[in-house]
Amino acid sequence: MRILIVEDEKRLAMTLKDLLDQSGYLADMAFDGNDGLELAKSGIYDGIILDVMLPGMDGFHLLKRLRAAGNGTPVLVLTAKGDLKDRVTGLDAGADYYLTKPFENQELLACLRSILRRQAAFVPECLAFGDLILSPAVTSLSCGEREVTLSARELELLTILFKNTGQFIPKETLLLKIWGYEANVNANSVEAYISFIRKKLALLGSSVTVKAARGIGYRLEETRPEVAP
Ligand code: CA
Q1: Is residue 127 classed as helix, strand or coil in its secondary structure?
Q2: Ligand 1 mean position, distance from CA 25 (Å)
Q3: Rounded to the nearest whole angstrom, what is the distance from the C-alpha of residue 55 to the centroid of ligand 1?
Q4: How would you classify the pairing of strands 146-149 and 208-213?
Q5: Which tens digit of pLDDT belongs to each residue from 152-201?
Q6: Span 101-115, pLDDT tens digits
Q7: How far apart are CA 47 and CA 152, in angstroms?
Q8: What is the DSSP annotation of 141-163?
């Protein structure tokens, strides 16, 4: 899952990013309100951690404008301003949760899991296609008795393909959803990860393959064994 951190204290933003990276999330950072709003509106994030006192545009305004634009991404507001009036303002602006600094890492992760769960209540524990079972919670892919573990990006890529079986997903969509606006990534990165996934499918002996359609995108397909007449 991809999380946006909007926080102008760069040391805290980096600490949060490290914490999220270690916890299996992909995280991007914005250091002021305007950049934060632009990134948030891209719609590629599963959750947003938002500071209130920000240069450019404060967190409450950012949140109001995001919600006014029809974006319902879960937002965890993170701030030193802990008095009741601010908490009410934050919740009224459309925050899903309000956490006051200083906070414990475990507390932050629990709050984040809670808002993501609420948003993704309809996402099952496991996703299945053909002879494969994808288990996001334990980052594994299994086929019968065999099982492989997945990297965060492999999991993200496979989750998108599993949730959209039947349609080709454009390479650009995968690129944006998985890498966001990171520098130095291009379509080759998608191809590299598709190739890692194909190797894992072969290792599992699965009948599922990642089908590529030139200029269109990728999807999962099940190859049925040939049956003799
Ligand atoms: Ca701040």
Answers
A1: strand
A2: 22
A3: 8
A4: unpaired
A5: 899 989 998 988 888 898 898 898 888 877 767 787 889 999 999 999 99
A6: 888 999 999 999 988
A7: 16
A8: EEETTEEEE--HHHHHHHHHHHH
